[in-house]
Write a structure and sequence with these properties.
Number of helices of chain A: 5
Helix content of chain B: 55-70%
Radius of gyration of chain A: 51 Å
Distance between the termini of chain B: 31 Å
Low-confidence stretches of chain B: 1-27
Largest sheet of chain A: none
Mean pLDDT of chain B: 82
Mean pLDDT of chain A: 73
Distance between the termini of chain A: 136 Å
Largest sheet of chain B: none
Helix content of chain A: 55-70%
Low-confidence stretches of chain A: none
Order of helices and strands of chain B: HHHHHHHEHHHHH
Number of strands of chain B: 1
Number of strands of chain A: 1
Structural class of chain B: mainly alpha
Strand content of chain B: under 5%
Largest interface: A-B, 29 and 51 residues
Shape of chain B: globular
Structural class of chain A: mainly alpha
Order of helices and strands of chain A: HEHHHH
Radius of gyration of chain B: 20 Å
Strand content of chain A: under 5%
Oligomer: heterodimer
């Protein structure tokens, strides 16, 4: 006898291990009792999940493909809808901004430009007929108060 | 009839219709009612077909008969894998509960026996893989008919004559050795050596090739030889 045969014969002796006929007789009753107890404990949610699982398992391939296609189409439609709304809103905002900016064609002046602009007023003759020449205290181009200038002098 | 006889003489799983058709055992029908004739022939091939149909229609008694018929064999499978009576009982209860819930999904492509045996195997493997660490063994009693078994007599006569090998000691050593194997190796040893299943059926149930079954058996036997060396002297 080979060594393998010896081992196989040894392991085969495990067949004599048995729980006894009484166990088998009581097994069916225990099974029914457990099933009854299990049904009472099963929550509505678990039953729903089980039913869904059974329905999905019983679905043929065609129905699964149809269901999946429907879901994909629904997702795409929803995405397209929201994308179009977003695009419409952004276009409206751009149109309003473009209209307001078109009315002001001249370029705006910076503060530096403003400061560099000097109001150049030619030296004016402040002499009023029959009056003495009055010199301004600053010597700039300021026009004293009370002096009325003609257009030529400006 | 001892449990050993039951396991040894366990009927081979009924062949499927496709197997018998390819073997040419089913004659080609010529009558108009060929569909009815084929249906009757299918039922003859799978002896559980009628019970399955009745159970699916809601007849509890039919399912009870299936439970009574296959409990001993399925219990043997689960027990020899777990070496724990309580775990085997719990797992077997879950197996039949699941089989009852899934009965409507049983298409009849294989025999009912193969189908429920696959369920039991998968649930046991999942249980053992989840259980990482080894649990205390809870062994069944050994039928005293073992004392008349030729293999037992040979084993006890070959062992050390100074030390008598008791049945309990032998049982414990065998179970310890089995538990040392990985779950995959233990499964093939249980199915082939203890339940006398052919390689092809083991391969089909486990979803592996026949070559893999043979190589796992070879490796498992080598491991067991090392652990049970003193019983072979």
């Amino acid at each position: 006898m080979s060594e393998t045969d010896d081992i196989e014969r040894l392991i085969r002796l495990k067949r004599y291990e048995s729980p006894g006929e009484a166990y088998y007789s009581a097994f069916l009753e225990d099974l029914k009792e457990r099933q009854r107890a299990g049904m009472l404990q099963t929550s509505a949610r678990n039953l729903l999940m089980e039913r869904i699982g059974t329905w999905i398992a019983e679905c043929g391939r065609t129905r699964c493909v149809l269901a999946l296609s429907t879901c994909v189409v629904a997702v795409l439609c929803t995405t397209f809808y929201f994308a179009s709304i977003t695009a419409f809103n952004s276009e409206s905002g751009n149109t309003i901004a473009a209209g307001s900016s078109a009315s002001s064609s001249s370029p705006t002046l910076s503060e530096a430009d403003i400061d560099s602009i000097q109001l150049k007023i030619p030296e004016l003759s402040t002499r009023v007929p029959d009056q003495k020449v009055v010199q301004t205290p600053t010597g700039g181009n300021l026009i004293p108060i009370g002096v009325h200038l003609g257009l030529r002098e400006l | 009839m001892t449990p050993a006889d039951c396991d040894a003489l366990a009927p081979p799983p009924p062949a499927t219709l496709s197997d018998q058709t390819s073997a040419g055992e089913v004659p080609a029908p010529t009558d108009v009612d060929s569909a009815a004739v084929n249906q009757q022939q299918k039922r003859r091939i799978d002896p559980d077909a009628d019970l399955v149909v009745r159970a699916r229609s809601g007849e509890m008694r039919a399912f009870d008969e299936l439970v009574e018929k296959y409990t001993p064999r399925l219990y043997g499978l689960v027990y020899h894998m777990t070496s724990n009576h309580d775990d085997a009982n719990d797992i077997l209860q879950e197996v039949f509960s699941k089989a009852y819930r899934s009965l409507k999904r049983f298409r009849g492509k294989s025999s009912f026996y193969t189908w429920i045996y696959s369920i039991a195997t998968n649930m046991t493997l999942n249980f053992l893989k989840k259980r990482n660490r080894r649990r205390m063994m809870s062994l069944d009693d050994v039928d005293l008919a073992i004392e008349n078994d030729r293999d037992f007599i040979d084993v006890t006569s070959k062992s050390d004559p100074v030390r008598e090998v008791g049945i309990s000691e032998l049982q414990e050593r065998l179970n310890i050795a089995m538990q040392k194997l990985s779950v995959d190796h233990r499964a093939v040893v249980t199915m082939f050596d203890i339940q006398a299943m052919p390689h092809a059926e083991i391969a089909k149930i486990l979803g592996i090739s026949e070559g893999t079954v043979r190589s796992r058996l070879f490796y498992a036997h080598q491991q067991l030889q090392a652990w049970l060396e003193d019983f072979r002297k």
